[in-house]
Design brief:
262 residues, Cyclin A, domain 1, Collagenase (Catalytic Domain), 5-stranded mixed beta sheet, 49% helix, globular
C-alpha cells in the first residue's frame, strides 16, 4: 500500500504548529543545542522544505505531520547556513516503516552483470527522491542519523556522483579538501581493518569505509551529532566540514552544556 500525504503546510502554507515543533525539537538533542535564532531559522527552512517536497509513505507506515516535520528539521540542519536552494532539483521523500530492499546490479571485470538485493535504511538518488526508514530515523541522537546521512549525499550530488567532494565555497581549497578527506579516509579504513582483527568497537559507523562518498555522509552525521568526538579524532576533517557547512556544532554544544552549569 502506498499512502501519500501532502503535509498541512503544503495545503495551507501555514507555519508548523508550536506544539508539534517543540515535540520534534525535544526528541533530538542536537537540535536542542541550537540557540533561539538558529532554531527559528531552522524552523523556517523546514517549513519551506515541507512546502516544496512531496512525502510518500510506503507499506504499513501511516504518514503523519510529526514524521514529516522530524525529517524536514533534521534534513535542513546541514543547510542552516546554506539555504534551501541547496535542495533544489528534486521533490520526493519516500518514507518506509523499516529497512527496505533495493535491487542492485554490478558488472564484473569479465562484463558479466550480477544482480542482487540489498537491505537499506536510506538511499539518495541523483535528481530523484530520497528514501528513509522511519525506524532508523528514530534512532537519531547518539551518532547515528540516517536522515542527515542521506541529505549529505544530496549535497554531495550537487556536482555529480557522491564522491565525498560536494561543491565547495570559494574559501575552501578543493585540493586541500581532497588531501584532508583522503588522509582521514585512509586512517579510518585502517582502523576498521584493525578492529576486525581485535574486535575493538569503532567510534564511528564502519560503513564509512565503503568509499569516500559514504565516508563524507557518515562523518556529516558525526559532525552534527557527536561533533566533539569528530573534532578530537579528525580535527582537520572537522575544520573542513565546519567550513563547508558554515557551522561549528562542537562549540555550539559546549556553550549549551556550559550554560547549564551552576
Amino acid at each position: 500500500m502506498i499512502d501519500k500525504l501532502l503535509c498541512w503546510l503544503r495545503h495551507r502554507q501555514a507555519p508548523v504548529p508550536d506544539a508539534l515543533w517543540n515535540v520534534v525539537i525535544a526528541a533530538l538533542p542536537f537540535l536542542q543545542a541550537l540557540n533561539k535564532d538558529e532554531q527559528l531559522r531552522l524552523r523556517r527552512l523546514a517549513e519551506g522544505f515541507l512546502a516544496e517536497k512531496e512525502f510518500t509513505a510506503v507499506g504499513e507506515l501511516e504518514l503523519s505531520d510529526a514524521i514529516c516535520v522530524s525529517i524536514a528539521a533534521q534534513g535542513c540542519l546541514p543547510i542552516l547556513e546554506l539555504g534551501l536552494d541547496y535542495y533544489r532539483g528534486w521533490v520526493g521523500v519516500i518514507v518506509y516503516a523499516d529497512e527496505f530492499i533495493i535491487p542492485r546490479s554490478v558488472e564484473d571485470e569479465f562484463g558479466i552483470v550480477h544482480e542482487y538485493q540489498e537491505l537499506a535504511s536510506g538511499e539518495a538518488w541523483d535528481g530523484g527522491p530520497l528514501l528513509i526508514s522511519w525506524r532508523d530515523a528514530q534512532m537519531a541522537g547518539s551518532g547515528y542519523n540516517v536522515v542527515i546521512h542521506e541529505f549529505a549525499h544530496k549535497l554531495d550530488m550537487r556536482n555529480g556522483e557522491a564522491n565525498g567532494i560536494p561543491p565547495l565555497p570559494a574559501q575552501l581549497s578543493p585540493s586541500h579538501w581532497q588531501q584532508v578527506l583522503d588522509t582521514a579516509y585512509d586512517d579510518f579504513c585502517a582502523r576498521v581493518d584493525a578492529s576486525a582483527d581485535s574486535a575493538q568497537e569503532m567510534l564511528f559507523d564502519p560503513y564509512a569505509s565503503e568509499n569516500p562518498g559514504e565516508f563524507f555522509a557518515v562523518m556529516s552525521e558525526a559532525f552534527f551529532e557527536t561533533p566533539a568526538l569528530l573534532r578530537t579524532e579528525y580535527p582537520a576533517l572537522y575544520a573542513q566540514l565546519a567550513g563547508f557547512y558554515r557551522q561549528d556544532p562542537a562549540s555550539r554544544i559546549f556553550r549549551k552544556t556550559a550554560g547549564r552549569q551552576p
